[in-house]
Amino acid sequence: MAPGTFAVDPEPAGAPWVESPDEDGGRVLLPGGPRNSIVLSPADVRGLRPIHGKGRRNGCCGPDGHDGPNLACADCGAEIATESGDCWTFQQVVLVPTAVEPTGAQPARSLGRRLG
User: Fold this and answer.
1) String of b and e for 54-92 (b: at least 16 CB within 10 Å)?
2) pLDDT digits (tens, 9 = 90+) for 74-86
């Protein structure tokens, strides 16, 4: 996500991962997490701290975001977001919809809308 933009992802996002058949008869893992997650640029996130528990920040160049929430509220410690930013993933922060409450302007339902 570009700084100053956000989106609402209508598709399932993140963990838990669900096994599904692929076109070649094999199996793939697809996101099975919540729908309607708010997606932000990492540059726009404030007041969060990394969660460093087992597997939470896997990746080679940055967190890959495939192991569930890896960011917590710096004040209360609630797990509220998953950051990805590895060399093979999108650079984004996905808020857990059940852990946050929007205030002020409602997010747009399309990608790339500018904040403010």
Assistant:
1) eebbebeebbbbbbbbbbbeeeeeebbbbbbbbeebeeb
2) 999 999 999 998 9
